Amino acid sequence: MKIRTRFAPSPTGFMHVGNLRTALYEYLTARHANGTFVLRIEDTDQERYVEGAIDVIYDTLKLAGISHDEGPDIGGDFGPYVQSERLSIYKPYAEKLIEEGKAYRCFCSKERLAKVREDAIANGQDSIGYDRHCRDLSQVEIEKNLNYGIPYVIRQKLPLSGETTYHDCVYGDITIPNEDLDDQILLKVDGFPTYNFANVIDDHTMGITHIVRGCEYLSSTPKYNALYEAFGWDIPTYIHLPLIMGKSIDEEGKEVVSKLSKRHGSTGFFDLVNEGYLPQAIINYIALLGWAPSDNKEILTMEELINDFNIESISKSPSVFDYDKLLWMNGEYIKAMSSDEFLSYAKVYYDKFAISSCKYDLLEELLKPRITKFTEIEEKLEFLAKYEEFELSLFEHKKSKSTLETSKQMINEFLPILESIDESNWNRDYLGSKFVDFATEKEIKNALIMWPIRIAAAGVAVTPGGCSEVLVLLGREESLRRINLAKSRLEI
Ligand code: GLU
């Protein structure tokens, strides 16, 4: 049997990382088995529809590297792939169930249903579902209602007693008492299918063999199965995924874990991308939210994910979305980048500081190990554009044995040496050798000269790279200008 999976998002305008994980696992399940991955848009609930949301879905999948084999944009043999374009498909299926006595027309008015509900609540009943008033109407009553043109919905007759068990690959056997199952509506008064009905008809008619979705659907699955059974169709393989949780600190300062939401951090794919997380790192990270390869390797390409993915290793315990871990992973992806790729992300920041291309190699070397997101570059290079009157106490540094007094002396003595170096020698190696020669001659530690020069040039304590690198990045003229300024400030 060829595996067919589908991602069936509702276009609500936002791709939560949980939905993206579902899409990824469907994709991996299909690709691992050389199967087919289908994209279907579930837009029967027009009230939830958000303009432009379908584009968010396409853009997300594309950027995430999750490619579908069939879908609204590329077609396929099982289309249309948008539910609102399939409306004529559903009704005949519901009518077939009526003919077979497995479904019935329910003529109850909204008012009656509201009253049933109210009474049930007043009586403290647990189950406040439909009271099955129309389930056993006589043929005469049905004809009469139809002749009067009374609007009706179509409901499925579900078993009144016993239990239903189904198997889920992650959660095992799930059993629920049948009395918990309401006689579900299949077609609404306006002839539109309900969400559950359309979902099952679509999955079956699209030949879907494996259904991957969030565990919030575990409890409605018996209803889906009741439909498969009523039609005599094979029940698909179910793979329900555990919740994704987030960590936060409560008022008493205790760490609490709850369903991942905005208060934990960004939860939307594009929000994370805009914050500087790389799509590949996000995908790699969310692949591990509930699944791990047998060798517990953490950095995996899409290729490796496809090879290693297996349904059996999906865990049912909820996983915690750890932003620090994602950040670490992002840094690992940056470190592994080729120079061209690194530059393609970093260039926008280089351009902001009007950095000439001859410094790109040095910057890559300095920044690659120091950043976990490209957005950090801006802050790291800020000293190039900004030189403010900094606190002179920055010159004091215990480890380098640097004090205001030594700084003043070092700058006074070294500035003429720096000034004698011409543009063509203004490079890391040459500058570095000058510092070392000076320190050797004076019999001092390198740090005693490098610390004050770097502070004087950068005006900040933390810089990407040491003294010579800072001087190279600033260029000869700007370095000398700044060190002269610092010199006069120290002399006052
Ligand atoms: N349209 C549903 C959602 O976006 C998917 C349900 C399913 O996969 O069966 O949550």
How would you describe this structure to a colleague?
There is one protein chain. The chain has helices spanning 17-32, 53-64, 87-99, 110-122, 139-147, 195-205, 221-231, 269-274, 279-287, 302-308, 323-335, 339-352, 360-367, 376-385, 404-420, 428-442, 446-458, 467-474, 476-491; strands spanning 4-7, 36-39, 103-106, 153-156, 163-168, 172-177, 185-187, 210-214, 237-241, 244-249, 255-259, 319-320. The chain has 492 residues and is mainly alpha-helical. It has 3 domains: 87-241, 3-Layer(aba) Sandwich (Rossmann fold), CATH 3.40.50; 245-335, Glutamyl-trna Synthetase, Domain 2 (Glutamyl-tRNA Synthetase, domain 2, Orthogonal Bundle); 387-491, Arc Repressor Mutant, subunit A (Orthogonal Bundle), CATH 1.10.10.350. The chain has a 3-stranded antiparallel sheet with strand order 3-4-7. Strand 1 (4-7), helix 1 and strand 2 (36-39) form a beta-alpha-beta unit. Helix 15 (404-420) packs across helix 17, helix 17 (446-458) packs across helix 19 (476-491) and helix 18 (467-474) crosses helix 19 (476-491). The longest helix is centred in the C-terminal third of the chain and has 17 residues, at 404-420. The model has no long low-confidence stretch (mean pLDDT 95). The chain binds glutamic acid. Glutamic acid binds at residues 8-10, 42, 199, 213, 217.
